[in-house]
Specification:
The structure holds 5 protein chains of 5 kinds. Chain A contains 11 helices and 2 strands. By secondary structure, chain A is an all-alpha fold. The longest helix of chain C has 20 residues. Chain E is of the alpha/beta class. Chain E has one domain: P-loop containing nucleotide triphosphate hydrolases (Rossmann fold). Classes of the chains: A mainly alpha, B alpha/beta, C alpha/beta, D mainly alpha, E alpha/beta. Chains A and D meet through helix 4, helix 7, helix 9 and helix 11 of A and helix 2, helix 7, helix 12 and helix 14 of D. Bound molecules: adenosine-5'-triphosphate (2 copies) and magnesium ion (2 copies). Chain A: Keywords: Amino-acid transport, Cell membrane, Membrane, Transmembrane, Transmembrane helix, Transport. Chain A: InterPro entries: ABC_transp_permease, BCAA_transport_permease. Chain A: One of its GO terms (molecular function) is transmembrane transporter activity.
């Protein structure tokens, strides 16, 4: 019983981590139609900023708060300088963002010397329930993920900002003809997606330690999650991430991890083959 | 009968777009399909051409049940569709658009090895000339105005020499004069082809069609020759009713 | 620089092929630095055979395809007399053919590895499974317990090492509770940790590598493994890897290598090279055993000895001399090639992490045999 | 009447990302192309001839080790060709092209290792077949079926295939695991052995030229036009009566076969195979070649492979520590300012896919 | 006093191909103006240039006394220009409700949406459906409704009744006539009668040039007109 509880918690917490990482990716992919290969590097930057705060002796949570803002600002700038040119050609965009990711990743690698560096959790230790130990930080991540998810959902579905965003990304010229400033919306959306990645990076760095390939590690998983969930909505990728995350954490409990690893991907592809619109077909938010 | 669609039902979520609609078209018949907006005309056309799978009902074509056929198989059996929303191949030239339509039924071997291009050149240019597009043959289709794209689409639909041509609002965005010309262009194909045409312009329909089917709320309200339909009281009623 | 006795002859060319970029660049750069240091030192002492040494460094970029191209540059363009490098086994496999078979050149591989490399003209100067397990595992059983778990990354080194380790464990009355392999980039180990805790494992003999090892140790710690008296063991852990986790999470972790920096306290020669290295290369790239830096030092010095003995630089003569080359001083102590085996005997040390630093807890009495080939 | 290009750019820049924009970009391209047509049409054959001559002369001017390098580049160009066929012409985003390249490589490596088969007339067809078979299986699964598959699905599907194969190769001992299969015996013809050098170079170049011409014939046939149509709007093409999915599967399979051929040559030339060769890294690399050079031109793929490899080689020589960053910056610049690839410096849009030489007839 | 929208010597086009040549027209503060012409005459191009989808190459474009030729589309729209494009006139993946909400982003009237729904009751039954799945006619209604919601001072309609059922056309015409009493309306329309009922004044384009212009009645009875409309 206790065992099952621990298992459920661990699986859930990894699912939450994947959801957190995929949130930004999903928003950019679903709403802007750009499969952003640099998304992993935004996660990395978020992690790096948190590390910097720690290394400079500032409180870690300060780094964590700063990360989404800094990465978001960077995303905004990159959108205006680079991404903006790609909207008409999604595949070129993949390659463009790939190059961008490469640049960021290799630069960060240079900055951290290619090492694996530890960043302590702001809330460390474990919550003990009887003989069971539950990581306090992982628990915090679950809570924050839920909050962020709800916040994003409300933002997109309930505010006029969300409406503008969806309208712009759906049909920009018509959006302009409805009086919406599309360049601003594009910038804002991309910045928002980047900021979420930055936040994800900041939150997960204590769990996984900082290294240059931190973001890359989750990228393919993220794309698959987006597809499984269904491109075109906010909820879809989130649901997909939940499924992929929990599956990758759950399968190793019942089979050889090496098999589980490949199996998750194969299952995902087969699923998409027979349900191309994804878990949640692309409508609504 | 060339085409027999019977008992077609199409349900989208909560909405029943077609509720037992039927359509039968004979050889060399021009058949008009009319009805208010949202009455299910386009949906019925799509069910016939295979773009939508009907929830219920059967479609048979040249005495074969084709309900389970894919669009490709239907096209190969001799059906050709022009969508309501124009869908030309935007970055190919007009020439290539037509050429593609012309040789859709060729075998793979022919596609790869035979020199159909030379052989088909005159046909392509003739088609383009008919539709007054010849001088733009080597421009990308995206550079056409909306009306010009409609024409290109009609030309493409005709190019495959279909037994049955399905046109969904081919004259949208055309002036009266242009409609007349389109009507004239369509007349000669009657020798070898039947036509189902969706239109809102009654005068146009009256001029070219032999028979009419009127749809309303997914059901056939009436079907018959043009004078019969014009005399039909329930048809007159929906024409008066506000949408 | 020093006046060369045989300056008229062209310099002797030393090729280094290592990961200057890519995920393990920290190791590759340290190796390249060590090579620069050693070559400088040899040149300062008058070169070899009266000729200066010239260093050619190429990047293997953790990408075998790039590596082969660059190694060809060393062999075919620069015509080096010897190549030292490659860190991972797959890299060694990729570049050994262009160097040894097609390139007809001498190859020294400096990293600790799984053993079984018996290609002629290929010399290994890092520790082998026998060197890392023979004394270490009995120590673990005594200082940890009998129940072992072998969680591993799924590639050749852990597989081969585990075969050896299991033998030693069982020979010493221990027991392997489970041996399990994970994808190289697996980062979630909840299932494994659960298995370790519920099976009451005493020693986790870990061959999971970064990036997975950080989260793995953390999850183990959070599950109370250390608190309940468990012992972590990891034979590639050196000063570089100490920073992956917070000190508390790996308190008591034991490792067995040919060199630890703490040795500088007791060993003047180690203090000397460590100081020389840190003076020349004060940056982040540490002089450490796990990144092949010590193997690189040892390899170059052994090769120097062999060239001196051969008096010539052609491959056959140097290989013949290298076969039984010895150095009296190296990182961690003396080293000597085992004749006919192309592997190296060296001293081994067992160290335990305490508060973010290592403490030496055991050392081999003499040079340990690699037991290869 | 002519407006300066800046105006055109502005038009495009103010109107990003929707159909209207696409149409406008098209319009601009068509305009340019018309000028190009007037200026003297056939640029593509000239480019092809120049590349061929340069390739023929290369070993005469290059140092030995560079000839070996060039051989490898030519093999990679062949590989790039296979991807261009699939992506540039049929619009199938194969993000897993390395799967066919690498599995063929592994296949011939096993032939050489376990059965001592190195005869060129056996191993090259075998490699080609392996590539073909894998492409048939994967392509069949991804491309055929009731729902037409989206570009993104296919790209992720192929990516996953490649990723899974990489994982498999790493974990499978028979294939050498992470370490791959080293020291493959040289390819042979009777007692002659193809070792790296000019002979190997010309062999590979010959193969490239033959395959190139075959591909060229294929894509300029009506089949090629059908592919171009497919890429624009698969559904529309299906409604014409084309067996769209079959056409895609066929070209995908052909691409796989070419990749297989390249992979087997690569295995013998480099002398080893390793898991990356079936994996995502190499898959991405080939995409870069083609995008860099210019997709949908065949020769663009070749040029792209040569330039990307050449530049990386040069950079890693001269900027040893930061060359990946510089490479990334260069890539980004090309993609930003030459989204149609380097080839677009000399080649107008009209000479790319989907435009065929019929206009000569029309304008007397 | 200047016209509300004042276009002088306007040249415009796509890429390098020029479509509009030296177009000059004036739109009054209120009332309807029809733009006629055969397929490909340049009507859509003119509309796009006015809202700023396409840059003007040359010439003047003044709205409400201010030069707008350098302003971005959205600024022009916010200044009071409403636009119903000929194609792609709805947000296909957004629901009908959200489409209307986008239209009323700038509007202050609370009951504006209800007003549109009374004009087009059909839309009321489709509120949660993605607009892309609407029938052709429904889509046009939605597009017109959306543009009306923005409280424009000048409304551009590019073939608003294409594919619309006759009964609804009648309704639309009535509304447009009503609208034209308070604001300016430019209508591109193939239904000549409808266009000229809404418009007091008409321009006829031919190959990108203004070929005819005048009071609606005059243009209607001009014997040249049919020649310019025939293909
Ligand atoms: N995919 C879909 N999902 C939900 N509803 C749909 C879908 N496609 C069509 N509908 C609805 O079905 C009804 C019939 O649509 P259809 O396009 O057949 O009408 P139509 O008769 O062609 O009308 P119009 O004359 O306006 O083109 C419409 O009310 C439309 O909103
Ligand atoms: N994207 C484009 N690129 C190049 N030329 C274009 C483009 N769009 C339209 N054209 C050309 O500009 C001219 C005017 O087109 P426009 O769309 O303004 O015509 P229109 O009067 O609206 O016709 P319709 O009644 O068919 O809608 C046409 O000759 C057309 O071919
Ligand atoms: Mg319709
Ligand atoms: Mg128009």
């Amino acid at each position: 019983m206790a065992n099952a509880f621990v298992a459920a918690f661990e699986i859930l917490s990894f699912g939450a981590i994947i959801v957190l990482i995929v949130l930004g990716l999903g928003i950019i992919a679903s709403m802007m139609g750009i499969f952003n290969f640099a998304q992993g590097e935004f996660v990395l930057l978020g992690a790096y900023i948190t590390y910097l705060a720690y290394a400079k002796g500032m409180p870690i949570w300060a780094g964590m708060v700063a990360a989404p803002f800094v990465v978001g600002a960077l995303g905004f700038a990159l959108e205006a300088l680079i991404i903006r040119r790609f909207y008409a050609a999604p595949i070129v965009a993949m390659l463009g963002t790939y190059a961008l990711g490469l640049i960021i990743r290799e630069s960060v690698r240079g900055l951290i010397g290619g090492f694996y560096l530890t960043v302590p959790e702001p809330i460390g230790g474990s919550i003990d329930i009887g003989a069971m130990h539950i990581s306090a930080w992982r628990f915090t991540i679950i809570v924050i993920t839920l909050l962020v998810m709800a916040g994003c959902y409300l933002l997109l579905s309930r505010t006029s900002f969300g409406l503008r965003m969806r309208a712009t990304l759906e049909n920009p010229s018509l959006a302009r003809a409805s009086g919406i400033s599309t360049p601003l919306m594009y910038g804002a959306t991309f910045a928002f997606g980047s900021a979420l990645a930055g936040l994800a990076g900041a939150l997960i760095v204590p769990v996984f330690s900082l290294y240059a390939d931190l973001g890359l590690r989750f990228l393919i998983q993220g794309f698959v999650a987006v597809m499984v969930g269904g491109v075109g909505s906010f909820i879809g990728p989130v649901a997909g991430a939940g499924v992929i995350g929990t599956l990758s954490a759950a399968l190793p409990w019942i089979m050889a991890p090496v098999v589980a690893d490949v199996l998750v991907f194969v299952l995902a592809i087969v699923f998409i083959k027979f349900r191309p619109q994804g878990l949640i077909a692309g409508k609504g938010v | 009968m060339l085409l027999e669609a019977a008992g077609i039902k199409k349900i989208f979520g909560k909405l029943t777009a077609l509720d037992g609609a039927a359509l039968s078209v004979g050889e060399n018949e021009f058949h008009g399909l009319i009805g208010p907006n949202g009455s299910g005309k386009s949906t019925l056309m799509k069910c016939i051409a295979g773009a939508e799978v009907p929830t219920q009902g059967t479609v048979s074509f040249v005495n074969t049940d084709i309900t389970a056929y894919t669009p490709t198989e239907r096209a190969r059996a001799g059906m050709s569709l022009k969508f309501q929303i124009t869908s030309v191949l935007p970055s190919l030239t007009l020439y290539d658009n037509i050429l593609l339509a012309l040789q859709a039924q060729s075998s793979l071997f022919d596609l790869v090895f035979s020199r159909t291009r030379g052989a088909l050149h005159d046909q392509v240019m003739t088609m383009l000339r008919q539709f007054r597009l010849a001088d733009r043959a080597f421009e990308a289709a995206a550079a056409l105005s909306h009306g010009q794209q409609q024409w290109l689409e009609i030309a493409m639909a005709l190019a495959g020499k279909p037994k049955l041509l399905l046109l969904d609002e081919p004259t949208g965005g055309m002036s009266l004069e242009e409609r007349r010309v389109t009507g004239e262009l369509l007349q000669p194909i009657k020798q070898h082809c039947s036509l189902v045409i969706v239109e809102h312009d009654l005068d146009f329909i009256r001029d070219i069609c032999d028979r009419l089917t009127v749809l309303d709320q997914g059901r056939v309200l009436a079907s018959g020759t043009v004078p019969e339909i014009q005399a039909n009281p329930s048809v007159q009623e929906i024409y008066l009713r506000r949408a | 620089p020093a006046p060369w006795a045989n300056a008229a002859e062209a310099p002797i060319k030393v090729g280094i092929a290592t990961d200057l970029t890519g995920p393990i660049a920290y190791a590759g750069n340290a190796d390249a630095n060590v090579a620069k240091m050693v070559i400088k030192e040899i040149n300062a002492a008058g070169g070899l055979l009266g000729r200066p040494l010239e260093l050619y460094i190429e990047d293997t970029a953790s990408n075998e395809s790039v590596a082969v191209g660059n190694v060809r540059k060393l062999i075919q363009r620069d015509k080096v007399d010897m190549v030292l490098g490659g860190i991972t086994s797959s890299m060694r496999n990729a570049i050994k053919d262009p160097i040894v078979a097609r390139g007809k050149t001498l190859y020294i591989y400096p990293q600790l590895y799984e053993g079984k490399e018996c290609t002629p003209y290929l010399f290994c100067t890092g520790p082998t499974p026998a060197q890392q397990c023979d004394e270490f595992i009995p120590w673990l059983i005594k200082n940890g317990g009998k129940k072992f778990a072998l969680p591993s990354a799924n590639y050749v080194w852990p597989h081969t090492l585990n075969v050896y380790a299991r033998k030693v464990i069982e020979a010493n009355g221990g027991e392997v509770v489970f041996e399990e392999y994970y994808p190289l980039d697996q980062v979630d180990f909840s299932a494994t940790v659960n298995r370790i805790v519920s099976n009451k494992v005493d020693v986790v003999f870990n061959t999971v590598i970064p990036p997975g090892v950080g989260p793995f140790f953390k999850q183990l710690y959070e599950a109370g493994f250390l608190k309940n008296g468990g012992r972590l063991a990891c034979v590639y852990y050196d000063e570089n890897t100490l920073n992956i986790n917070q000190a508390a999470e790996i308190e008591g972790l034991a490792s067995c290598l040919d060199y630890f920096k703490v040795l500088t306290k007791e060993n003047p020669f180690d203090a000397k090279i460590q100081a020389a290295y840190e003076k020349d290369f004060p940056g982040n790239f540490l002089f450490a055993a796990g990144s092949a830096a010590t193997g690189t030092y040892r390899g170059l010095k052994l090769w120097e000895a062999a060239v001196k003995e051969a008096g010539k630089i052609d491959r056959e003569s140097v290989a013949a001399a290298l076969d039984h080359a010895k150095i009296a001083e190296g990182p961690g102590g003396p080293a000597e090639m085992v004749p006919g085996k192309r592997h190296c005997k060296m001293k081994m040390y067992t160290a335990v992490a305490k508060g973010g630093n290592y403490e030496i807890v055991a050392r081999s009495s003499g040079l340990v045999d690699p037991k290869e080939c | 009447m002519l407006k300066p290009m800046s105006v055109v750019r502005e038009a495009i820049a103010t109107d990003m990302g929707d159909e209207a924009d696409g149409a406008m970009a098209e319009g601009a391209a068509a305009g340019q192309a018309k000028d190009r047509v007037k200026a003297g049409r056939k640029i593509l054959p000239i480019v092809e001839a120049v590349v061929l001559v340069a390739a023929l002369l290369a070993p005469l001017v290059l140092q030995d080790y560079l000839t070996v390098f060039a051989t490898r580049v030519i093999i990679l160009a062949l590989f790039a060709l296979s991807f261009d066929l699939v992506w540039g012409y049929a619009g199938i985003m194969s993000f897993g092209q390395a799967l066919f390249f690498g599995s063929a490589g592994y296949g011939v490596a096993l032939l050489a290792r376990d059965l001592d088969i190195t005869n060129i007339f056996l191993v090259l067809p075998a490699g080609t077949l392996i590539g073909l078979a894998f492409a048939l299986l994967l392509g069949g699964f991804l491309l055929l079926g009731r729902h037409p598959s989206s570009v993104i699905f296919v790209s992720l599907g192929t990516l996953t295939g490649s990723y899974a194969a990489d994982r498999l190769a790493r974990g499978w001992y028979y294939l050498g695991g992470q370490n791959g299969i080293p020291s493959i015996a040289p390819m042979s013809l009777g007692t002659y052995e193809f070792t790296e050098g000019p002979a190997f170079y010309y062999l590979v170049l010959g193969i490239l030229v033959v395959v190139y011409l075959l591909c060229r014939f294929l894509v300029r046939s009506q089949f090629g036009l059908a592919l171009a149509g497919l890429r624009e709007n698969e559904q529309r093409i299906a409604f014409f009566g084309y067996k769209a999915q079959h056409l895609k599967a066929i070209i995908f399979t052909i691409g796989g076969a070419v990749a297989g051929l390249a992979g087997s040559l690569y295995a013998f030339h480099e002398g080893f195979v390793w898991p990356n060769m079936v994996g995502v890294v190499v898959s991405t690399q080939v995409v870069l070649y083609v995008l860099f050079g210019g997709s949908g031109t065949l020769i663009g793929a070749v040029i792209g492979a040569v330039i990307v490899e050449g530049v990386s080689f040069w950079l890693s020589d001269n900027y040893r520590d930061i060359w990946p960053i510089i490479l990334g910056v260069l890539l980004l610049l090309v993609i930003l300012f030459r989204p149609l690839g380097l080839i677009s410096f000399v080649l107008g849009e009209r000479e790319r896919v989907g435009s065929f030489g019929a206009k000569a007839k029309e304008n007397p | 006093m200047p016209e509300f929208l004042d276009i002088k010597h306007l040249d415009a086009g796509y890429g390098r191909s020029q479509v509009l040549f030296d177009v000059t027209l004036g739109i009054p503060w209120r009332g309807g103006v029809a733009v006629l012409g055969r397929n490909g005459a340049g009507k859509t191009t003119l509309m796009k240039t006015i809202v700023g989808e396409l840059p003007a190459w040359k010439g003047e474009l003044a709205f409400d006394g201010r030069d707008i030729s350098r302003r971005a589309t959205q600024e022009r729209v916010r200044a009071g220009i409403g636009y119903v494009p000929q194609e792609h006139s709805v947000f296909a993946r957004l629901s009908v409700r959200d489409n209307l909400a986008v239209g009323s982003l700038a509007s202050k009237k609370a009951d504006a949406v209800d007003h549109v729904l009374t004009i087009f009751p059909k839309l009321g039954q489709r509120l949660d459906q993605p607009a892309g799945t609407l029938s052709g006619g429904e889509r046009k209604m939605l597009a017109i409704g959306r543009a009306m919601l923005g409280d424009p001072k000048l409304l551009l309609l590019d073939e608003p009744t294409e594919g619309v059922w006759i009964g609804v056309i009648e309704e639309i015409t009535e509304r447009l006539i009503e609208l034209a009493r308070t604001i300016a309306v430019i209508i591109v329309e193939q239904h000549l009668d409808l266009a000229l009922r809404v418009a007091d004044y008409a321009y006829v384009l031919d190959r990108g040039r203004v070929a005819l212009q005048g009071e609606a009645g005059q243009v209607r009875s001009n014997p040249e007109l049919m020649r310019y409309l025939a293909p």
